[in-house]
Structure formats: C-alpha cells, structure tokens
Design brief:
Layout lengths: L12 E5 L9 H5 L5 E4 L4 E4 L9 H5 L5 E5 L12 H13 L4 E2 L14 E3 L20 E3 L22 E3 L3 E3 L9 H14 L3 E2 L16 E5 L8 H6 L2 E5 L11 E2 L7 H6 L7 E2 L10 H14 L6 E6 L4 H9 L5 E5 L8 E2 H6 L4 H14 L7 E5 L5 H10 L3 E4 L1 H7 L21 H4 L4 H26 L4 H4 L6 E3 L4 H7 L2 E2 L3
Parallel strand pairs: 9-19, 10-11, 11-12, 12-15, 15-16, 16-18, 18-19, 20-21
Antiparallel strand pairs: 1-4, 2-3, 5-17, 6-20, 7-8, 13-14
Helix pairs in contact: 4-14, 8-10, 11-14
Length: 504
C-alpha cells in the first residue's frame, strides 16, 4: 500500500469554535462554500477543517450565537528574516503541483504606500479656508480633450464646440471588473450606483450583458487583446471606449478567466463557447507601435461616429512618461494609468508582487512630462491602483489626475472581505463567483445602496479637504502640487512627485 504523501503546508488560519455557545444549527456549514465546517454524526457536534479556510469571515458574520472566531494559525515555521513563512509555503505549493502560483486582489507586500507619506496643506489667515456647508464647492469633472486656444467663427461668435466629453459628478469612477470575474449581481450593483451618483463604471474585458445596455450613459466599454464580447452594438452602447493595453496587477501579460466561470450568459456575452478558458493574449496582435495604436483609436472613433471619447489604459512601468506622451499623440482622449497595487481576479503571484511601479510616482511623472511637452490639455488622466479613500483621491488630483478609478474599495463596500481567493469562484459574499446559490447572497438593492453611500461620504470628504485648502473646485486642485508635502521620502522621491518636504 502506497504511503500517503506528507502535506508540508500547515493551515493558514485557525477556526475556533466555542462549544458552550455552538447550538449545532449548521448555518456555518450551509454558508461556507469551501467546505470548512461539517457535522460529526458520531460525536454530534460541529467540526472544522481549517486547511480549507480562506478567512472570508462569512461564518463569523452569520453565526447566530457568536460561537466562531477565525484567527491566524498558531503554527509557524522557525523565524527567518530571509526565508519567511509566505516564501516557504509558496515553494512547498510549487514543489507539490509544478504549477504557477496564482493570486487575487492587489499586492499585499509591505512596500511604500506613497499616499501615506504625502500630507495636504491647509489654508489659514492669509488665505482663508472655504466652508463647504455654506459656500459652493464644485466636484464635477469633465474628461476628454480640451481646446488649446479660444477660437471664433467668421461672425465673431465664440466657437465653443468641444470633442466628446465625459461628465462626472465627482472625480471617481468604478474600474474595470469583467462580467465573469464578478457576478451578475455585482455588475448590476455597480451600474445602478454609477447612474444614481452620476459617474461611470467599466465593463472590463468581458463584454456587456444585454440587461445592462440601459445604463449605457454611465458605462465605459472595454476593448482588450482578446476582443471578448466586442461588436458594433457593444461599442456604441457605452459613453466611452477603453482600450486595455495593460493593468497594474499583471503588466506585460494578458487576462485569464477559467472555463469554470464561462457559463450561461457569460459565454453568450463574451461570445465564446461555454466552459472554454478566456485567455487574452499579452499584446494586441494589431498593435506594436504608437502608429498601430493610433489606427485602432481612430477605427473606434469612426465606428462610433466620433461621439465617444477613447481611453487607453496602461500599467504603470518605468518608462510610463514616454509611453503616455506617445498615447497623447495617438488621438486618445483619456489615458488611464494603473499602478502595481491594482487588484485583479487572478494574476501570477510573481508578476503581481514584482512587476510595475507605484501609481503615485507614475502619475506625477506623466503629468509633468505632458506639461513639459505642452500637451497636457490634449488628454485627461485617470489614476488607479489602490485608491483607498477620499484623501487618496484628493492627493491624486493634486499630483495631476483628472479622476481616479476604484475597484477594491467598491468591492469592499459590497461586502468583500479581501480573502484573496477570487480565482476559486467560491466567493462566499456573492461577488467573485458564478455559482447561483452564492451569487444570490449579494442583493443588488443592498449593493447599489452601499456603493452610493460610500461615494456620498467620499464626496463630502473631498469637499471638506478642498475647503480646508482654500480651493473650491476640482479644476483648481488638479496638478496643484504646492498643496502637498512629503514625509519620510528621499530627495529623489520628492523630485519625482514634484512636492516639497513637510516644513519646507
């Protein structure tokens, strides 16, 4: 009889059950999609398999008696500054499977978060602050090309014609999350919230479900390298078109949605066979230069009768300023830059954790390069890659962004607990799953309402922060780096960000 191989991997989490409180109601067993909890018929009590736990906290939230607690596992490898627990576990996993490690969400490593090292200036005495409760405060944003000069018609009247613009009630948009990577109910929550708030949400590279065409005025449709779900009706359905060249969580590679998630309407929407993997190529096979990109940009404009702005999305990499300069000259109306902390449903762990640069440095470098070249007004800039709060939005705008993309914050608002297991399809909160019984756990009424609440709160906070700076409009804040100061940053970092040290 062959020996059972040793499992070198201890459980990441410990499931603690207070027997004095547990009533054997088995709700935890029913609610856990990972099979952690089960009833021991012999002993007539609930037990747990901690090895299957991803710490989604669903069981803790639904337990009627508060009998459950999930903690970090007490077992740990011998402390070693070089060979840490996570590194050892990754080697054990690859030694057992021979596979590439996959991870969800954004980079969790303790690298510098520049937002937390940037402070905002406040106005006092000589430049009084503005009270947003009693004085007008403009948070609207207009995205798209702006004229470089005022022109007049032959009769002397002002020629006010503008290229197509996107109007946002505040400088925030819901970032790309494709139908398939997240559920129908999650997409509905995003679409409904975007419409109510007066902002836009992005379809991602999975096409647009026919039920959501009615939200077209608040939709950005995406064209990625796989062209999934792309057709003329789709391109004309949204308010803008985004060409995805790359994303922060996995620069240099394409997307991958496993066939287990390509079911029913997802297959129909993506226009691929049910059960087949949706693998996007690393490059667009018709784009190998800025000239090729320009051709696609104008093809999309031609298809939509020049009525919709075109966004080009790229990952933040070391030469992002030069790349953005080329994109600005390609005819694109908006550039979206995604930093290395950007989330995703699934990415190779090594790429997610080691490729790309922070959005803060990339954004500042791009804004300055476009200003130096005198073409900043030809494009708008959207920054993404772990925008966590209204303060991050304010700092991003001051560094040069016209608006920000958010995704993980939106997922958290809908109930996500950052268990980083999206690729499994077993999301206990009904977000990153296609299992009908799990999808039903996210009520779109509740999801949309929570997203609206979050954005309402952020808009109030943005107004408060701008008021404290003595600024009454997003336009006056954009690129106003004089209102920022750095702490704990090197001279090189301060120079790239274009801000002075606190106290200077």
């Amino acid at each position: 009889m062959a020996k059972r191989p040793i499992d070198y991997l201890p459980a990441d989490f410990a499931v603690r059950r207070d027997i004095s409180l547990c009533t054997n109601c088995r709700i935890c067993e029913k609610e856990c999609a990972n099979g952690v909890h089960f009833f021991d018929e012999k002993r007539q009590l609930m037990k747990s398999d901690a090895a299957k736990c991803v710490n989604c906290q669903r069981c803790v939230a639904v337990c009627p008696t508060g009998a459950l607690q999930i903690t970090d596992a007490p077992s740990a490898f011998r402390q070693n500054a070089n060979w840490q627990d996570a590194t050892i576990k990754e080697i054990y996993k690859q030694a057992a499977t021979g596979g590439v490690l996959l991870s969800s969400m954004g980079n969790p490593n303790p690298l510098p978060v520049y937002w937390d090292r940037i402070l905002v200036n406040a106005s006092q005495v000589t430049n009084p602050p503005i009270d947003p409760l009693r004085e007008p405060m403009e948070t609207r944003v207009f995205l798209g090309k702006k004229p470089t000069a005022v022109s007049r018609r032959a009769d002397g009247s002002l020629d006010a014609a503008l290229p197509p613009q996107l109007t946002l009630s505040m400088p925030v948009m819901f970032s790309a999350m494709s139908y398939g990577s997240i559920s129908y109910n999650a997409h509905e929550s995003l679409a409904r919230a975007a419409k109510e708030i007066g902002i836009l949400y992005n379809t991602g590279e999975g096409g647009l479900h026919e039920d959501f065409y009615c939200y077209g005025e608040n939709t950005v449709v995406q064209v990625a390298s796989g062209r999934f779900g792309v057709h003329k009706g789709y391109l004309n359905a949204g308010a803008a078109i985004e060409v995805k060249m790359g994303q922060g969580a996995k620069p240099g590679i394409g997307g991958h949605l496993p066939g287990t998630k390509i079911v029913g309407d997802i297959a129909k929407t993506r226009m691929i066979p049910e059960g087949s993997d949706a693998i996007s190529p690393a490059p667009h096979h018709d784009i190998y230069s800025i000239e090729d990109l320009r051709q696609l940009v104008y093809s999309l404009k031609e298809t939509t009768h020049y009525k919709k702005p075109v966004i080009v999305k790229v990952a933040a990499v070391h030469n992002i300023a030069a790349i953005a300069s080329g994109i600005a000259r390609s005819g694109a109306d908006i550039i979206a830059i995604d930093g290395f902390r950007g989330g995703t449903g699934a990415a190779p762990t090594r790429i997610r954790d080691n490729v790309g640069i922070p959005i803060e440095l990339a954004l500042a470098a791009v804004d300055q390069r476009l200003r130096d070249e005198g073409i900043r007004g030809t494009v708008s800039l959207i920054a993404g890659g772990s925008i966590r709060s209204a303060a991050d939005v304010v700092k991003a705008v001051a560094l040069g962004a016209d608006a920000c993309y958010i995704a993980t914050a939106a997922l958290l608002a809908m109930g996500c607990h950052l268990c980083r297991n999206c690729q499994s399809g077993n999301c206990n909160w009904g977000i990153a799953t296609q299992r009908p019984e799990l999808v039903a756990r996210l009520d779109p009424d509740v999801g949309a309402a929570r997203l609206v609440n979050l954005m309402t709160a952020w808009r109030h906070e943005i107004k408060e922060m701008m008021g404290g700076m003595g600024i009454n409009s997003i336009e006056a804040l954009r690129g106003n780096r004089a209102m920022l100061r750095g702490v704990g940053l090197t001279d090189s970092e301060l120079a790239i960000l274009g801000i002075a040290h606190a106290g200077a």
